C-alpha cells in the first residue's frame, strides 16, 4: 500500500518524521448542521483510513467543536500505540487570566486527550494582544517546565497578525516550530510570504494551517475552476492548494481540516508520491487566482473564533452564504440560501458592538461586512 509522503529532512530541533499531511481536527462531520456534536462513526472511519495510509500527525485544540474535539481524539487515538502518532493541541490564551488558568487548562487537556504528553503544543492564535497573556509572570516558565518534564515535546505557536508582530514574538522566546496560514491567496493578500521568510530566517520549521482557506480554495469560481481542470483534468481543485502549501522547503506539515471521507482520500492521494509545484503549475495557479479575485468575497475561513455573537448572529454562516453568491452570482440561490438562516441569526441583528473584532484572526471588519450582506440581500429580494 502506498502511503502519504513523510519528509525525511530533519527540521532544526525536531528530530522526528511527521507525515507531510496533518489531520486537522476542527471540522469533523457532525450529527446535525446546527450543533458541534461529532458524527463519531464517520470521523473514526476517516481517522482510521488516514492512519492506515501513513498520516501520523493529528492537530486538535481546546475550543474545536466547542470543546468536543479533544475528548473525541483521546478516544480515537487511544486505539493506536502511543509512539505511532504525533498529537498537537493548543493553549487558548483568551481563556487565561492567570497562571492558575494555564495550569488548569493544560492538565485538563491531557486528561481530555487521554495522553501523558503532547508531542506538539502551541500557544493558540497569537497576535499582538493575545501575546500579552504569555507575559503574565510564570506562564512561559510553566510551559517550559512541562517541556523539561516531557509533558510537552515541542513548543510552538500559531499566528495571525503582521510580520512585525511575528518577529517580536519569535524573538521573545525559544520556539521549536511556528504554525502559519499559508495558501496561494494569502501569500500576498495577508503577506504570508514575509511571515514564512521570517520563520525560515530564524531557523524554525513551519507547519501550515488553512492551506485551502476554510474550503474557499476548494470551490473558487467557475472560471477559476475551469482553469485548473483544463490544466490537470484528473486533479481536484483543492489538490492544487494542498500541493502549493507543501512545496515550500521549510514546511514540515500541512494541516487539512477534513470534513468527509472524500476530502480525506483526495488529500492522501495528493500527498502520496508528492511532487512540488513547478513553474508551469505556478503559472496556472496565478491565472486561476486572478480569475477568482474578480469576484468580491469576504476573506472568512469559517474558523468560528468570532462566535458566539452577543446578539445571536451566526457570523460564519452569514458570510458563507454571501461568498457563495459572490462567487456564483446567482441571486435567486442567494436569497434561498440566506433565508435558510433563522431570522435571529441574520446580518440585520448585528449592532456593531465590536466583540467579534477582538477574536477574528483574519482581521475582517465584520460589522461593515454585515451591512454589505444585509444590503445585498434586501436589494436582491426587491428585484426577485
Overall description:
This protein has 384 residues and is of the alpha/beta class. 42% of the residues lie in helices and 12% in strands. It has an eight-stranded parallel β-barrel, surrounded by four helices. Helix 2 links the parallel strand 2 and strand 3. Helix 13 crosses helix 15. The N and C termini lie far apart (54 Å).
CATH class of the largest domain: Alpha Beta
* Mean pLDDT reading: 94
Low-confidence stretches: none
Task: Report strand order across the widest sheet.
Answer: 1-2-3-4-5-6-7-8
What oligomeric state is this? Answer: single chain
Order of helices and strands: EHEHEHEHEHEHHEHHHEHHHHH
- The CATH homologous superfamily of the largest domain is termed NADP-dependent oxidoreductase domain
How many helices does DSSP assign?
Answer: 15
- CATH architectural category of the largest domain: Alpha-Beta Barrel
Supply the number of structural domains: 2
Largest sheet: 8 strands, parallel, barrel
Shape: globular
Rg on CA atoms, Å: 21 Å
Helix content: 40-55%
Helix/strand class: alpha/beta
Q: How far apart are the first and last residues' alpha carbons, in Å?
A: 54 Å
